[in-house]
Amino acid sequence: MLGIPYTPAIDMWSLGCIMAELYIGYPLFPGESENDQMSRIMEMRDVPPEDVLGVSERKMKFFT
Predict the structure, then answer these.
(1) How far apart are CA 59 and CA 61, in angstroms?
(2) Contact between residue 29 and residue 1 where contact means Cβ atoms under 8 Å apart
């Protein structure tokens, strides 16, 4: 969503989310749009760190 390069860390994040969703039976971040999804992620994980936002190509879509 933020337009940053992928690393193996995204695979581990995805695996963790999938495992949690299978266990609880519903999506962790059931957003209806990218903005809604980002808002739900930030509710649980807080604002992304400055170094992540520094390399984000799409940060202006979510942050001002």
Answers:
(1) 5
(2) no
